[in-house]
Write a structure and sequence with these properties.
Peroxisomal Thiolase, Chain A, domain 1; about 325 residues; globular; five-stranded mixed β-sheet; alpha/beta
Length: about 325
């Protein structure tokens, strides 16, 4: 049975404290945010994806397997035409006979890429795939929702045996959401009607109802990429009052399609063999995967940095430097 055989996360090098918005705007509109990770002028989702992938492959040792397919989940790729996903294998491997699929258009894309990579290996036994989720959503600097926008990356190597974790179920719901953020063709920055919390709550409630139909499944953790108002409702809507909810939103910001995969990796950092985690990506619906940790998890994570450790490694900057990296001012 194919599953996850290695994983890793990445973050940009810079951090902005929520207090910077209070000092310069009088308030931080991202309630619950403590700090966020953001891309420097020379970083983007592709560089974050490459970094996470290199770390995940490194955890497998010097002789990691040949990757047959790569699935990239991202909402803000550098190019509208020209697959950004093609840059990843060029940077990672010395071969080009690899299938590349780019999944975009929704913050669900990261979890969708992970599930697609697993299903690829289920359909083609004894092959290996790489699922990469990386994102850095961008909004107009004078909008309220921009305060929350962060950046992150996560990568998962999929192969026979699934020594780290196996997916035991997946589910999805799709629904139009009036409050969902969007980015029209030709636009660099997203637009948000600032009703997103209502839409996300509706999506979480709908997939929670779908999950309740699955009988006899114990879940110890829920990894989700969502704002605090949604996170507070998760235990109730999934009917899992004792499950630990893991969301790094308050520490890294809204990392788009990478939010849920990053939270999943953070959950793996704390799990033991036999533990379970439900990873949920949200955006005009929701996609979820239920994973069970295997015996190889502890040894795999012991060879790299944890998500919590990585969060603490960044350099805090002042708001004026943040604006320079956002190209509001010249560097």
């Amino acid at each position: 049975m194919p599953g996850i055989i290695s994983y890793a996360v990445s973050l940009p090098s810079l951090r902005l404290p929520a207090s910077a918005y209070v000092e310069n705007w009088g308030v931080c509109e991202a309630r619950g945010l403590k700090q966020k990770a953001f891309c420097a002028y020379d970083e983007d989702p592709v560089t974050l994806g490459i970094q996470a992938s290199k770390l995940a492959l490194k955890r497998l040792g010097r002789k990691f397997p040949k990757i047959d397919a790569l699935f990239f989940g991202v909402t803000t790729p550098p190019y509208e035409e020209k697959p950004s996903a093609a840059t990843l294998p060029t940077a990672l491997f010395d071969y080009n006979d690899i299938r590349v699929t780019e999944i975009t258009g929704s913050p669900q894309a990261g979890i969708q890429a992970l599930i697609a990579a697993i299903e690829y290996c289920e359909a083609l036994p004894n092959r290996y795939s790489l699922a990469v989720a990386a994102d850095a959503p961008v909004g107009k600097i004078d909008t309220h929702f921009e305060h929350a926008l962060g950046a992150a990356g996560a990568a998962f190597v999929i192969g026979p045996g699934g020594g780290v974790a196996n997916m035991i179920n997946s589910l999805a719901i799709t629904q139009e959401s009036f409050g969902a953020r969007f980015r029209r063709q030709g636009e660099e920055r997203i637009t948000d009607l600032e009703l997103r919390t209502q839409g996300n709550l509706a999506s979480v409630t709908a997939i929670g109802a779908k999950f309740s139909e699955i009988k006899g499944v114990g879940v110890g953790r829920i990894a989700i990429g969502a704002e605090p108002a949604v996170v507070r409702a998760v235990n109730r809507v999934f009917g899992l009052p004792e499950a630990e909810v893991i969301s790094l939103w308050s520490q890294i910001g809204d990392a788009g399609s990478a939010s849920a995969p990053f939270a999943l990796a953070a959950a793996f950092d704390k799990m033991c063999a036999g533990d379970t985690v439900l990873a949920v990506g949200i955006g005009s619906g929701a996609t979820a995967g239920l994973f069970k940790a295997e015996k190889g998890l502890v040894s795999n994570r012991g060879t790299g940095i944890t998500a919590d450790e990585l969060i603490g490694c960044g350099r805090m900057v002042k708001y004026i430097e943040y604006l320079k990296h956002k190209r509001v001012f010249s560097i």
